[in-house]
Amino acid sequence: MNTLRVGLIGAGGISHVHAAGWRELGAHVTVYSHDGAAALAAAYGFAVADDLDELLATVDVVDIVTSSRSHRELALAAIAAGKHVVCEKPLAATSEAAREIAEAAEEAGVQVFPAHVVRFFPEYARIKQQVDAGRIGAPAVLRFVRGGEAPRPGSWFFDEAAGGGIVLDQMIHDLDQALWLAGDVSQVYAVQSPPSVDGIVPPQVTAHVVLTHTGGALSHIQGTWGATGMAFRTSADIAGATGVLAIDSAIDTAVMVDLPASGQTDGYLPPAAHAESPYTTQLREFARAFAGGPEPRVSAADGIRAVLLAEAAAESIRTGRAIDVDLAAAAAVESVSVNA
What is the pLDDT, as a whole number, of residue 271? Predict the structure, then answer.
């Protein structure tokens, strides 16, 4: 089989887990970034592209690990060049942009996968298998908690206009989990404390989102960006008529991910463990799909739906109202002509 040629765009903290994954999979990787490309390439033995056009001319797949607001422009450029795309969550900063990416890919005949890596954590994947097998009956109440040290102070993560904010950047993982485990959602209610000021999220913040699923289940999602040194922790509890499934990273350390010892990852990422990184597992599944294998467990439509929920949560936080949503209609992708 030919070696997969991957173009990695971005050299920030999250780039290292993607870089480690592609290296483990034996891909030939070229890096392009406004800052840090040479250092990242040197750390992993990759090549460097001087500009985006050079990158696109030499790769089969583009992996976007930049700030959320830039995802649309970069994904559309890659798609216009006929390249498959992996894009860090969220797929785009808005659901409109996410739909545009998916529709452009459909028209171009290439594949786009959002990197919703929590689906690839072994414990979350086993919960999904057990729910689908009917072990606890239909999910009735789901509770997800995710929290840890906040991102770097002053970074784009806190700027809601730049695609940041705790709901869109951090809690989107568990919004996606709720959809994966309990299905479509009809209503979203959310609160945030302290509130954002002029679109800037406070340096320490907690948000709560309640999802009403069309099947009758309720999902409660809590996210926290805490003080420096706050330990990263996640948990999930899914209750049905015949039992409860639960995981907690403080108890079962297998949910931790394997991070390179680069010293350049942000503190809000999970701590290291010795098991295979879910990021590597995720990229392997995407690579197989690009080579004509089975579809991965996450799709572009999933990426759109998660962003739609994050938008509804943001509207609820702003207005204090519960927001009705129709994800099936809003996330439907049609093949249309898109100008990149």
Answer: 53
